[in-house]
Amino acid sequence: MLENTVIIGVGRGGCNALSKVKLKIEKLFVDTDKNVVEKYSGFCIGLKTCNGLSTGGDVVKGELALRESKLQILDRIGKFSDWIIIAPLGGGTSCGGSKHLVDLALDNYKSVKFLTSLPFEWEGNRRKHHAVETISYIENLCEVITVEFDSKKYPAQISMTDIFNLLDEKYMEAIEKICV
Questions:
Q1: Residue 34: which H helix or E strand, with range?
Q2: What are the φ and ψ backbone dihedral angles of 150, each rounded to 5 degrees?
Q3: Distances (CA, A) of 132 to 59, 138, 144
Q4: Residue numbers of the chain with a pLDDT score lower than 50
Q5: What is the pLDDT of residue 1?
Q6: Model's pTM, two decimal places?
Q7: Could you tell me if 117 and 89 are in contact, meaning their C-beta atoms sit under 8 angstroms apart?
Q8: Strand ranges (DSSP E) for 20-174?
Q9: How many CA atoms lie within 13 A of 150 on its CB side?
Q10: How many CA atoms lie within 13 A of 154 on its CB side?
């Protein structure tokens, strides 16, 4: 299975989680922010739309960036029949870009699994609204695997870095289950 599989990290969170995957598998790091993709030797989408910068949480910019770069994405990973997309939701690239990445995969007869998580409460209602809207769209198209993580189970003084690292561990567990 793994020789026909590619894992795609979308947005800063997806790229960060994907960077921790130890499996010998094809990976593609995708974001609009040039600094993020350079860190992971990834692919910067939407150069005309975002000028190598973050979408700033703008879902429409994330959608446009993915549309702008869809042919280059297909050139890079079109040969793979199974796509696993990692996108912790809430941001512009993760929400806007992921919708169109799933569409792109399905339009090209790919099998898709979408691995995601909802924003934490402290990330705000706007991010949560975008995430719920994105999941509602994607769950009608492919298998959605939601990584559950309750930050309230940890001490109040735990750092955000530690919380995100713990969330990434949950992603790794889910990926191992998918790829076995």
A1: helix 34-40
A2: -110, 100
A3: 13, 10, 12
A4: none
A5: 57
A6: 0.93
A7: yes
A8: 26-31, 43-44, 82-88, 111-117, 143-146
A9: 2
A10: 14
